[in-house]
Amino acid sequence: MITGAILIGRDEAQTQAGYAAINPATGATLEPRFTTAGLAEVERACALADAASIAFAEAEPETRAVFLETIADEIVGIGEPLIERAMAETGLPRARLEGERGRTTGQLRLFAQVLREGSWAGLTIDPALPERAPLPRPDLRVRKVALGPVVVFGASNFPLAFSVAGGDTASAFAAGCPVIVKGHSAHPGTGELVARAIQRAVALCHLPEGVFSYLPASREAGTALVADHRVKAVGFTGSRPGGMALMRTAAARPEPIPVYAEMSSINPVVLFPAALAARAEALGAAFVGSLTMGAGQFCTNPGLVIAIDGPDLDTFLASASAAMGGSVAQDMLTPGIHSAYVEGVSALAGHGAVTTLARGVEPTGPYQAQGALFRTTAADFLADPALGAEVFGSSSLVITVSDMAEALKVIAALEGQLTATLILDAEDEPEVAKLLPVLERKVGRILVNGWPTGVEVCHAMVHGGPFPSTSDGRTTSVGASAIERFLRPVCYQNMPSALLPEGLRDGNPWNAPRRIDGVLKLG
Length: 523
Known about the structure:
The chain has helices at about 40-55, 60-80, 80-90, 95-115, 165-175, 190-205, 220-225, 240-250, 275-290, 310-325, 335-350, 380-385, 405-415, 430-440, and strands at about 5-10, 10-15, 15-20, 30-35, 125, 140-145, 150-155, 180, 210-215, 235, 260, 270, 305-310, 330, 355-360, 370, 370-375, 395-400, 415-425, 445-450, 485-495, 515, 520. By secondary structure, it is α/β, with parallel strands linked by helices.
């Protein structure tokens, strides 16, 4: 059932009904109207989260693992109504949303596995050395503990995998942090269905009600959540201005807190000479397939291509232009995203140093993205930083360079990125080796002979990068390491055994990996 309610702990709250979802494929409004949380609801949710934080943080890892798996089961249990509502609110196709539901439940189950494996806790013991000269060493033991309540802002472009029960929420729960989700207004019905699934899981697992609350909140209330003294961290996926605003609010608090914001990335693709000579035509078509997937509404969309000017690049561009010319316009997620896309494409099309290579098929719906492919030179790109701005959607800019040395200059001038893609053959490897040290300082993930759209949820994944792709390039929002954002170390010196946290007691009651006197013991 979707009622438009606010979910605070185990209860529902209703204020004045503030807004309705919009079907981006038709422009029609959807029922019901949704309540907008205000400052009173923020206060209650934060108080409940604070009250629950110690008990949830100290719960056995197995308890939290079962909780995560129960959330996954409850989401699956919603069944067809979840997919149907998400389709109506986003314009995304069924297959995409069914896959995203699988990814959402998969990452919840991944963090359950992480909890059971145990290395997340960083359990380390340096036993006392009372006879050591000139000074004895005390008994020192360390573990990682939960930061405290976390606020998660739902993302517009992933109504499931980066929203109410998405990666930020899953990793914060795994760390032992209560979560307050600020629901996204683009898909409020989808958000409420998932929020109710989490609410049911909290009850089924007999956890404190403050472990989870869901606030479809106003901008004012969202800011108040970040400013509340009981909140200890923030997860955000969205625009650069939005992320920067939250960072300023968090930094201005008497106790500043971390904001883990994924914001802006154009994800450069470098076409190396031998690879381009061998398969330029096929690469052109494959590139446009990645660029236009989902109307380009992926944070890893390939928005920049760098290649040496010449006949092989001409072949690539002819193929890409033909593919772009036949690409059907697709619904964008919200009127606001569509408006920003049209503005960004118009700015490129009207730039004196930019040539329009191809446009997609004319739109037939109110908020559809018409694909766009542009071209400029390295000199012009380097002369105008505005050409490096993200255009969120199926638009990309090809930069022609005279040689790979000039390509390196372009890469060195880029802001931080989530990904860089290298299209290469074996003969290109010496040139690739020259670029890698620079790329490693610019991006969080380097791909070879693939396309950046799509992020695997696993232990080795990094979905982060230097600013402004994220607010903290040392972290990832996807993969097992995402739990580290919501933990901090605590050291216990000469603590009596009975008072030690269970995971640090002699005998290893958790049977978890521990480093003892510098040697890793695997349980």
